[in-house]
Amino acid sequence: xxxxxxxxxxxxxxxxxxxxxxxxxxxxxxxxxxxxxxxxxxxxxxxxxxxxxxxxxxxxxxxxxxxxxxxxxxxxxxxxxxxxxxxxxxxxxxxxxxxxxxxxxxxxxxxxxxxxxxxxxxxxxxxxxxxxxxxxxxxxxxxxxxxxxxxxxxxxxxxxxxxxxxxxxxxxxxxxxxxxxxxxxxxxxxxxxxxxxxxxxxxxxxxxxxxxxxxxxxxxxxxxxxxxxxxxxxxxxxxxxxxxxxxxxxxxxxxxxxxxxxxxxxxx
Length: 268
Known about the structure:
Elements: E1 5-10, H1 25-33, E2 52-55, H2 63-79, E3 83-88, H3 94-105, E4 109-113, H4 133-139, E5 146-151, H5 156-165, E6 168-171, E7 187-192, H6 214-222, E8 228-234, H7 245-264
Parallel strand pairs: 1-2, 1-3, 3-8, 4-5, 4-7, 5-6, 7-8
Helix pairs in contact: 1-7, 2-3, 3-4, 6-7
């Protein structure tokens, strides 16, 4: 198989609110991917051993240079034909990664898993906040369509932002009537682990009850009907984890995203 998948740590939490700690999530999640308690086969029947390569983590110091480095890394990975999965780190990393991917591969849609819309125009005076990446992405026209899944905490400002940018939300309160998702363009997946209910993922900074089960999230990932050209998995906070449960959930999400990437490569 000629397709190569790069797994790249991005240990940045400079733009976190409430608490820090997500910078350590990159190493913890990547270590869990290779935990001997599991294996590198996906549920969709792919052996990742020959195609998954752990790349050196990005250097994110000094912070003022980190955004450009992330953008360049995403652009270079995609331009080389590789399929990158970036592991954060806080959710602020998604904006520069998407900008780099867009420069390399052209237009795509974004499937965003999260308890929070992360579309604040400005949060705590920081336009690069982990609460704002999708406002920046939509302002710059970096994706064709943004679908945010698992939303269950949104204020009036974020609801106004949703209407302003034409974002599609699948809110947890409407879980029983969610439509099946279908995409007409390639897809970039951004997975904030607090999309999962805290019972499934306690190792995040922002506990928001009423979220997705790991199985529900995997079902949505497996149902993606377009090529997945890149992804990020963010907001693992090992300091809040319990027995590595959240790290293993992150690893499971990473493996299944990789499997969907391999499956979808034939759709290119």
